[in-house]
Amino acid sequence: MKVTKLVSTCDIKDCPTIYATDRGTFLVQGETPSDHGLQIPAHETLVEIPMELLQKAIRDNLI
């Protein structure tokens, strides 16, 4: 899989980030919340990203 960084909230590697793949999908880096109260299948996960990250990606026409 080829991964391309689209947008991040900072310049270091441990911040929320959106990546595009050569599969026509997105990867999202963010916090793993534990207090959501949802039942998520074992093969899936949730990540929490700041609204600012999505707004920046939309504003910059990245998604």
UniProtKB/TrEMBL annotation:
Annotated source species: Streptomyces thermoviolaceus subsp. thermoviolaceus
Full protein name: Uncharacterized protein
